[in-house]
Design a protein that fits this description.
Pfam family, one: HATPase_c
Main location: membrane
Low-confidence stretches: 387-391
Helix content: 55-70%
Order of helices and strands: HHHEEHEEEHHHHEHEEHEEHHEE
Strand order of the largest sheet: 2-1-5-4-3
Number of strands: 12
Organism: Actinopolyspora erythraea
Protein name: Signal transduction histidine-protein kinase/phosphatase MprB
CATH architecture of the largest domain: 2-Layer Sandwich
Subcellular location: Cell membrane
Number of helices: 12
Largest sheet: 5 strands, antiparallel
Radius of gyration: 49 Å
CATH topology of the largest domain: Heat Shock Protein 90
Mean pLDDT: 83
Shape: rod-shaped
């Protein structure tokens, strides 16, 4: 916007300067021309009295003195054909002036001023004053340069003033943009200044109201999540007591471990809800090899129980990713959970983890029926979108984890015709 305003003012100022300076430049040239011609005419007329009264020798001395002191060469053509003074031809213009008519004519390299006067013998004499092109333009070029410099200075001043004015207009908009970006990054304390033009003041007030409303909604959400933790505490405690009361010790430990896992998951959800709305920073990152290996070991027991072939290919670590370990674990659980939930028992699957160009790639592909057209048309990567009757939250967890790290998720078909999910995780900046 600043640039556009500056360009507009520059264009307008240029048009105004051209409209004024060109006629002024022409006027300067005309004034210089008239001044030179008038000076030449004055010098020529100064000899009229001498030509009309003095004798030949006196007239000749007077012409020589005038040529020595004057700016323009003078020539006197007498009635008897004698020429005194500077070299000059008796042109048709001189013969015309010899008839008693004074005039100014163009000579090609300047002008000649011809003054007709009666001489002492009673005949007609012509006084010729020659003005060269250089004399006609004396001071014109310097005046033009001054006018051009003045135009440049005025143009620069106008652009500078326009830029200052545009900055005062753009600054409130830039501040509003900065505040909106800070709010988007979780700085809920950011507020826009109200000291601005009336139009911007209304926008700033609305933005501040929106920021306050967002803060209230997030506070209410945190309260709801905290209430959820208290509501789940009693059922989880009952499950733990029931598990510990089992006679089968191994069965009791297994169920207790599941209860502990559920309790940790609930605690992690509460912690993440508490962090929501805080200023975003670069994720601390984790070793993807360690996290994926641990979750694969967890799911391998269920794969064995359901007679599934689990083909695992995990590169040697460490492979750092810009995702917290808990988020990466949730991502792996969501992908493997989908395999178990949407394929029949006995259907095998692949889990691969390796370093890609600028990312760490996790590939989960099963040997089932794969995605059908309706599922892909429903965009299953978005929250709540599922064509198989599920909640549609699993792939959304994967999408958000990959997106927060600067990566992406791709859905397709595997080599055996089943569903294939490719997740690229960004790597932490060094």
């Amino acid at each position: 916007m600043r640039r556009r305003i500056a360009l507009l003012v520059a264009a307008t100022t240029t048009l105004v300067l051209v409209a004024f300076l060109i006629p002024l430049a022409v006027l300067v040239r005309t004034v210089a021309f008239d001044r030179a011609v008038n000076t030449a005419t004055t010098e020529a007329q100064a000899l009229t009295s001498v030509v009309g009264t003095a004798d030949r020798s006196t007239l000749e001395l007077s012409v020589q003195r005038a040529n020595a002191q004057g700016r323009f060469p003078l020539t006197v053509f007498l009635a008897d054909g004698t020429r005194l003074g500077a070299e000059a031809a008796r042109t048709p213009a001189v013969r015309l002036a010899d008839r008693g008519r004074s005039l100014t004519v163009d000579t090609g390299d300047g002008v000649a001023v011809l003054v007709s006067v009666g001489d002492s013998s009673g005949g007609r004499a012509v006084i010729r004053s020659a003005v060269g092109e250089r004399e006609l333009l004396r001071g014109v070029h310097r005046a033009w340069l001054l006018l051009a410099g003045l135009g440049v200075v005025l143009l620069g001043l106008s652009v500078l003033v326009a830029d200052r004015l545009a900055r005062s207009l753009v600054r409130p908009t830039k501040e509003l943009s900065d505040v909106s970006h800070r709010l988007a990054n979780g700085e809920l304390e950011a507020r826009a200044r109200i000291e601005s033009p009336p139009e911007m003041r209304e926008v700033a007030t609305a933005l501040n109201h929106l920021a306050g409303r967002i803060r209230e909604l997030l506070a209410a959400e945190r309260e709801h999540v905290a209430d959820l933790s208290h509501r789940l505490r009693t059922p989880l405690m009952s499950l733990r007591l029931d598990a510990e009361a089992l006679r089968d010790r191994s069965e009791s430990e297994r169920i207790t471990e599941h209860v502990d896992t559920l309790q940790r998951a609930v605690t992690r959800i509460i912690e993440q809800a508490g962090k929501r709305g805080a200023t975003r920073t670069s994720p601390p990152g984790c070793d993807a090899v360690a996290v994926v290996s641990e979750r694969v070991d967890f799911w391998s027991v269920l794969a064995e129980d359901t007679e599934r072939e689990m083909r695992v290919d995990i590169a040697r670590g460490p492979l750092r990713v810009a995702v917290e370990a808990s988020e990466l674990a949730d991502c792996v659980d969501a992908l493997l959970g989908n395999v178990f939930a949407h394929t029949e028992d006995g259907v095998g699957f692949d889990v691969r983890l390796f370093a890609a160009e600028g990312a760490v790639r996790l590939v989960v592909a099963d040997d089932g029926a794969g995605f059908d057209e309706s599922e892909l048309a429903g965009d299953p990567l978005h929250r709540g979108a599922s064509g198989s009757g599920s909640s549609g939250l699993g792939l959304d967890i994967v999408r958000r984890a990959a997106g927060d790290s600067g990566g992406s998720v791709t859905l397709g078909s595997g080599a055996r015709g089943g569903a294939r999910v490719v997740v690229d995780f960004g790597v932490p900046e060094v």
